[in-house]
Amino acid sequence: MSPKIEQLTESFLLGEGPHWDVATQSLYFVDCIRQNLVKYNPTTNKVTKASAAPKQPTFIIPVQGKSDHFIISLDKELAIVNWDGESDKFTIVQKLCVADGGPGTAQNKFNDGKCDSSGRLWAGTLNIDKEDEDKTLPVGTLYSFDSKRGLKGHISQVRLTNGIAFNDQTKKMFYIDTLKGTVDQFDFDVTSGEISNRKVWFTLNQNNISGKPDGMTIDTDGNLWVAVFQGSRVIKIDGHTPETLLDTIEMPAQQVTSVAFGGPNLDELYVTTASFEYKGRTPPPPVNGALYRITGTGSKGLPANNFKLN
């Protein structure tokens, strides 16, 4: 049976950071450019939004054990917020930290973020060249944040941090700096929170895939699902053998931004997309920018890790 693709919502300018919340059986994500937190309830098909303006959120992750509390990014800040998922406003409960205080980083912002199984947040910063993304300078950093150690930098000279995924069984972390055009692998110690031995795991050009790697998730077999921006597809790559493409799912949208498994059995793949002007072209709504659900992939995801505050 071939996978079934359903368009679920209206068009967003830049849907990103999908996170399936097992507790509420709903999907949280963000519309970065419109500066909104978003919740999608698949039971009712209802979409609710809360504005973070004038700052830009790029991810929203529930806080473990605290209902309606989330860690989010606000430009280059990390904060804990309280949002009921229904109203159009949220409350900042605690400002955690500000990243990138060095020279030349005044305009930096956080981008993609994920938590590891200890509840530690991993997120990177960037400063995209708005005239030509390919000229974006390597002024970002990949950070981790936890309540004990605070903010810790791991990789400098990052251009465009995106997908992050963890495999606790093999003790690996997978990571995407989009403008490298690769998925990279690290050895990962979840106890110490250290990464090492970076190597290229999958190269899009080498596998004849047009577009750029964006958001990413991992399934129960340890394989990776990668959104391909400007590539109109989601690819499944082998998490155990490098440079191995396992499957491709063609999407109606051109700007495919991220993926997350969800649903009662975690066998539904939710896909965020975008519809903003890119290199002089604006992909038309409603298919571009919508949230999609893919069923029938034959794969299941792991419960998404939430943030541990204390």
Textual characterization of the structure:
The protein is mainly beta. The protein is 0% helix and 50% strand. It contains no helices and 24 strands. Strand 3 (26-31) and strand 4 form a beta hairpin. The protein is globular and about 45 Å long. It starts with a strand and ends in a 15-residue tail after the last strand. The mean pLDDT is 96.
Measured as a percent range, the helix fraction is under 10%
Query: Gap between N and C termini, in Å?
Result: 45 Å
Strand content: over 45%
The general outline is: globular
**Average pLDDT over all residues:** 96
DSSP, total strands: 24
* Alpha-beta classification: mainly beta
Radius of gyration: 18 Å
Secondary-structure topology with pairs:
Elements: E1 4-7, E2 15-21, E3 26-31, E4 36-41, E5 46-51, E6 60-62, E7 69-74, E8 77-82, E9 91-98, E10 109-115, E11 121-126, E12 140-146, E13 150-158, E14 161-167, E15 172-177, E16 182-189, E17 194-203, E18 212-218, E19 224-229, E20 233-237, E21 245-250, E22 255-262, E23 268-274, E24 292-295
Antiparallel strand pairs: 1-24, 2-3, 3-4, 4-5, 6-7, 7-8, 8-9, 10-11, 11-12, 12-13, 14-15, 15-16, 16-17, 18-19, 19-20, 20-21, 22-23, 23-24
